[in-house]
Amino acid sequence: MQIQTSSNIKARPFLKWAGGKTQLLPTIDTFLPKGIDSQHNITYIEPFVGGGALLFHMLQKYPNISRAIINDKNPRLINTYQTIRDYPWHLIEVLQNLQTEYRSLGNSESQQEYFLEIRKAFNTAGNSNIEDAAYMLFLNRTCFNGLYRENSKGCFNVPFGKYINPTICDEELIIADSKLLQSVIILNGDFCQVEKYIDGYTVIYFDPPYRPLSSTSNFNSYTKEAFNDAEQQRLCEFFKTISQRGCYGLLSNSDGTAVNSDDTFLVDLYKDFFIEHVNAKRAINSIGTKRGSLSELLIRNYSLIKG
Prior knowledge:
Elements: H1 25-30, E1 42-46, H2 53-61, E2 65-72, H3 75-86, H4 88-104, H5 108-122, H6 129-142, H7 171-181, E3 184-188, E4 202-206, H8 229-244, E5 248-254, H9 265-269, E6 274-281, E7 293-300
Parallel strand pairs: 1-2, 1-4, 2-3, 4-5
Antiparallel strand pairs: 5-7, 6-7
Helix pairs in contact: 3-6, 3-7, 4-6, 5-6
């Protein structure tokens, strides 16, 4: 199998991911360390890679990044990254079969049954890594609102999305992403494990599960383990650790003060650092009227003034 990619096809996220940073890229770019484009042999690290919007942006805009390391605690997500990097042709073949079968069903009821079969298979042990990656991409294209969510048992539980003719197999995107990921170190585990990769001029971008803004907006179930306030505090301690090691650290999180002026948990936690309140669009929400612009925190451990 051979696919000729168009020269204008750029690497970009292969998954729709809650909290993805595509809309916020121009803003984040303005808060990167000054002079980053003139440095040599940059190490770039993302301990919570998620959909990877900033990863793909950084690797294409800053060719002076000589080493990139990504990590996530979700093993299915990391398997998909590794499969796209190492076995893109095999993945495309499986995805093409899934797409053909899904589209041939012709009606929403039959497609929903097929979706539930794939979801059950995805939640069952014994699949190959390529099958698991294909199932994850299929479900992301056909589930409700492209959401990824796990229950306490670690099972994907998002319902059917009623998309009649979705693009399940985007061959050119998979190949473009695979090429960009070739030199990327891909890890699965706790965010602290990236510390051993700090070397020289190192930029680390943290995009953890956001702290809930209210008791009714507590979605951070990307894995079966909850990312609670104790984890937020542990992350802050790690942010301090990498700061002491001379890394450039940038971190995103929710802005509790935008909803409740008394909710200063994160502002207090990171009071020793530079805190920006930036507007970000939310594309994923079960309630359409709540998809819009919200304030988020962008925290950094460095001044934007050169020298």
